[in-house]
Design a protein that fits this description.
With 286 residues, the protein is of the alpha/beta class. The chain contains ten helices and 14 strands. It is globular, with a radius of gyration of 21 Å.
Length: 286
Amino acid sequence: MSTERVLTIDDLSVRYGRRQILEGVRLGLDRGEVLALLGRNGEGKTSLVRCLLGLQRPQRGRIEVFGRDAWSRREEILADVAYVPERPQAPEWRTARQLLAWGGAFYARWEAGPAVAALEANRVPLDLALGSLSQGQRKQVEIAFALASRPRLLILDDPALGLDPVARRHLWDQVIERLADEGVSILLTTHELEAVERVAERVAVLHGGRLVVDEPLESLRSRFRRLPAAVEVPSVRAARTVATAWGERRVVTDWPGDGLADALAARAEPMSLEEIFEALIRETPS
């Protein structure tokens, strides 16, 4: 069965003055796929998203969304794309009900009913000005607005920021999973790596302006193991990682599975995505 390519990023480079933010980034996203774009603050995640939305023109490279250039055909693309920013951006003087009624004038597939029902279920006031709501309530309004457009591509920039635990779990465990099952492609940035392990199929990591990882989550987890620092690991690339939350360990980045002696394999421990991210960013094995 053929795979529909929703997003293609080719040789993307972004510079601010003398500072190179992104250099030669290549990335893709298929229909119904959930991709987590990770990186420390300032690594270019927001710049990449701005270029994707046609809000910023890169110094080099191209971005195609549904086969259309993101810069020159921005208006066409945005009919199929929804974006939830890190910080709420909807006008503070509008109410959630007004916002959801207003959106129908701009999107052909607009469906406000489920959005209203979701906000009511989460006890978000529909008739109070957004400026009087909490940050978490405003974030829920923006998520509801994005979903009402019935997008084919959903971009979530730290979507759980400000949400209470119940709303956060609903987003990760129900909303994203349902959308992916319906064929919606999702690109998300977040620092909640535990949640990423539940919802993402692929992980991409930006570091030093470059994409240092782009692979299926299960593949990434299968090739990382940690061992006590004193253990010598023959024939595989390893490095000593110091001063981490989980102590001094030897991190193996290309674990060969059954290729090691049973005694050595027995001492190897799987690593969480948070630990893998730390190993990649802070103590990248040489």
